[in-house]
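Q: My labmate handed me this sequence with no annotations at all. I'd like to see what the chain might look like in three dimensions before we decide whether it's worth expressing. Could you predict it?
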Amino acid sequence: MSGERQLFLAYAGDLETRTGGYLYDRRVALELEGRGWQVERMSLQTGFPHPSAAELAATRDRLSMLPRGAMVLIDGLALGAMPPALTAELAGHVDLVALVHHPLCLETGLGVTAAAELERSERAALAVARAVIVTSTSTATSIAAMFGVPGERISVAVPGTDAAPLASGSIDGVVRMLAVGTVTPRKGHAILVRALAGLEGRWQLELAGSLERDPATVGDLRALIGDYGLADRIRFLGELDWEALAAAFDRADLFVSASFYEGYGMAIAEALARGLPIVAATGGAVRDTVGPDAGLLVPPDDPTALRGALRRFLTDPDLADNMRHGARASRERLPSWSDTAAVVEATLFGAVR
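A: Here is what I predict for the chain of 353 residues:
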């Protein structure tokens, strides 16, 4: 490795992007620096996971300047979409470690050709990486099965969660639900809206997350909400800074998610840190994060089952109280960012040639 405890952290676009994956990258970098590492942040092109030829050429030029033998941790959003020839070239030059939040080819809405191309490129990238860091045991199982990555090369570094005050919740008898996530097909917002259609009781939903990254999906979702006559009960908050998001968690009574796939579910963990019960689809690693005492889990892409779980929470006070108690108990079991960094650090040391 070039230099004692030096790391190049590479990622697509802007590290300040407000998604769970970028938050993970930021916090791990800060924790490693606190442990004595020198972390150089490397922003690659913004077009990943579907980069243009020009963006790939610029990425190749940037990576070619890395010192020989450097320790390089690359976020899977970029690494998994690089051509096999580029990742093979890179792996021959540096100590390459992959950080996989979730398999790119499982993104909802991909066409068959695009999914196959991403499966091929991600398989090639993980084959040449000296180690692979994932964010959940579910993702570890997935990449071992899908890409043939040996278990001994996979490390599970579960995202940390900061301690937070218990949510205050509502005081007017209206159950306030909160969903957090960029409005894209994978997050399943349309499934959630269909589940809410016809749901009796006094409830409101707030949707926190960027409305800019997939305008077509946002437009379809707004139209669906209008078709069901729910515009006065569902509020778009857009992308929030940390203070505004904390306020949204504080006024919530229930956290909801209809996501088709989560590599971990950092927003769900944040809800648990605030003692919020969960109603969610089980896509990906959600079952790893939400214990049976803290939430009601249903299959993905099943609005009827999701509506039934929401109805149970709204109509059974004893069940709702038990879920709140379970969520509060879960707070004590959430790992810290120091725990996350310890696993990442051990993996990096083990990946040195």
